[in-house]
Amino acid sequence: MKYVLIALSILLISSTVQADNYFAIHGCYKSYRAAKQDTRRHGGYVIDTNDYPNFGSGYFCAVHGPGSRSSMKQICRKYGYSCYVKSGY
Protein backbone atom coordinates (compact mmCIF):
# COMPACT_ATOMS: atom_id res chain seq x y z
CA MET A 1 0.00 0.00 0.00
CA LYS A 2 2.85 2.34 0.86
CA TYR A 3 4.40 1.91 -2.62
CA VAL A 4 1.07 2.51 -4.34
CA LEU A 5 0.68 5.82 -2.51
CA ILE A 6 4.22 6.85 -3.42
CA ALA A 7 3.64 5.96 -7.08
CA LEU A 8 0.36 7.90 -7.16
CA SER A 9 2.04 10.90 -5.55
CA ILE A 10 4.82 10.88 -8.14
CA LEU A 11 2.30 10.58 -10.97
CA LEU A 12 0.25 13.48 -9.60
CA ILE A 13 3.31 15.69 -9.19
CA SER A 14 4.66 14.91 -12.65
CA SER A 15 1.31 15.60 -14.33
CA THR A 16 1.01 18.89 -12.44
CA VAL A 17 4.50 19.94 -13.46
CA GLN A 18 3.89 19.06 -17.11
CA ALA A 19 0.58 20.95 -17.17
CA ASP A 20 2.42 24.28 -16.98
CA ASN A 21 5.11 23.60 -19.57
CA TYR A 22 3.44 25.24 -22.57
CA PHE A 23 4.89 28.17 -24.45
CA ALA A 24 3.32 30.78 -26.70
CA ILE A 25 5.82 30.87 -29.57
CA HIS A 26 6.11 33.90 -31.83
CA GLY A 27 8.94 32.62 -33.97
CA CYS A 28 12.00 30.40 -34.04
CA TYR A 29 15.27 31.39 -35.66
CA LYS A 30 18.74 30.03 -36.26
CA SER A 31 20.29 33.08 -34.61
CA TYR A 32 19.80 34.39 -31.09
CA ARG A 33 19.86 37.93 -32.42
CA ALA A 34 16.84 37.38 -34.70
CA ALA A 35 14.85 35.82 -31.85
CA LYS A 36 15.78 38.72 -29.58
CA GLN A 37 14.50 41.19 -32.18
CA ASP A 38 11.20 39.31 -32.22
CA THR A 39 10.89 39.76 -28.44
CA ARG A 40 11.27 43.49 -28.90
CA ARG A 41 8.13 43.43 -31.09
CA HIS A 42 6.04 40.97 -29.06
CA GLY A 43 7.57 40.89 -25.58
CA GLY A 44 8.59 37.64 -23.94
CA TYR A 45 12.08 36.23 -23.97
CA VAL A 46 14.36 33.87 -25.93
CA ILE A 47 14.77 30.14 -25.26
CA ASP A 48 17.34 27.75 -26.69
CA THR A 49 15.42 24.79 -28.15
CA ASN A 50 18.26 22.44 -27.19
CA ASP A 51 16.98 22.80 -23.60
CA TYR A 52 13.52 21.37 -24.39
CA PRO A 53 12.99 17.81 -25.67
CA ASN A 54 9.76 18.59 -27.60
CA PHE A 55 11.42 21.31 -29.67
CA GLY A 56 13.68 20.70 -32.64
CA SER A 57 17.29 21.38 -31.74
CA GLY A 58 19.40 24.21 -33.06
CA TYR A 59 16.95 27.12 -32.83
CA PHE A 60 16.25 30.12 -30.66
CA CYS A 61 12.58 30.90 -30.09
CA ALA A 62 10.83 34.08 -28.98
CA VAL A 63 8.29 32.92 -26.40
CA HIS A 64 5.97 33.76 -23.54
CA GLY A 65 5.55 31.23 -20.73
CA PRO A 66 5.82 28.63 -19.54
CA GLY A 67 2.23 28.32 -18.44
CA SER A 68 -0.92 26.33 -18.92
CA ARG A 69 -2.04 25.52 -22.43
CA SER A 70 -5.14 27.70 -22.06
CA SER A 71 -3.20 30.72 -20.81
CA MET A 72 -0.72 30.43 -23.68
CA LYS A 73 -3.61 30.17 -26.16
CA GLN A 74 -4.96 33.44 -24.77
CA ILE A 75 -1.61 35.08 -25.42
CA CYS A 76 -1.60 33.72 -28.98
CA ARG A 77 -5.07 35.12 -29.63
CA LYS A 78 -3.65 38.53 -28.83
CA TYR A 79 -0.87 38.17 -31.43
CA GLY A 80 -2.79 36.35 -34.16
CA TYR A 81 -1.61 33.95 -36.82
CA SER A 82 2.13 34.24 -36.14
CA CYS A 83 1.81 32.67 -32.69
CA TYR A 84 1.31 29.02 -31.72
CA VAL A 85 1.31 26.94 -28.53
CA LYS A 86 3.68 24.04 -27.86
CA SER A 87 4.74 22.01 -24.84
CA GLY A 88 8.41 22.07 -23.93
CA TYR A 89 8.32 18.58 -22.36
What class do helices, strands and sheet pairing give?
alpha+beta
Q: Kindly report the oligomeric state of this protein.
A: single chain
CATH class: Alpha Beta
Write down the overall geometry. Answer: globular
The number of strands is 4
Please render the helix and strand layout as text.
Elements: H1 2-19, E1 22-29, H2 32-42, E2 45-48, E3 60-67, H3 69-79, E4 84-87
Antiparallel strand pairs: 1-3, 1-4, 2-3
Notes on the protein architecture:
With 89 residues, the chain is of the alpha+beta class. It is built from three helices and four strands; from the N terminus they run αβαββαβ. It has one domain (20-87): Alpha-Beta Plaits, CATH 3.30.70. A four-stranded antiparallel beta sheet has the order 2-3-1-4.
Give a concise summary.
By secondary structure, the chain is α+β, with helices and mostly antiparallel strands. It is built from 3 helices and 4 strands, in the order αβαββαβ. It has one domain: Alpha-Beta Plaits (2-Layer Sandwich).
Keywords:
single chain, 89 residues, alpha+beta, Alpha-Beta Plaits, 4-stranded antiparallel sheet, 3 helices, 4 strands, 27% strand, globular, disordered N terminus
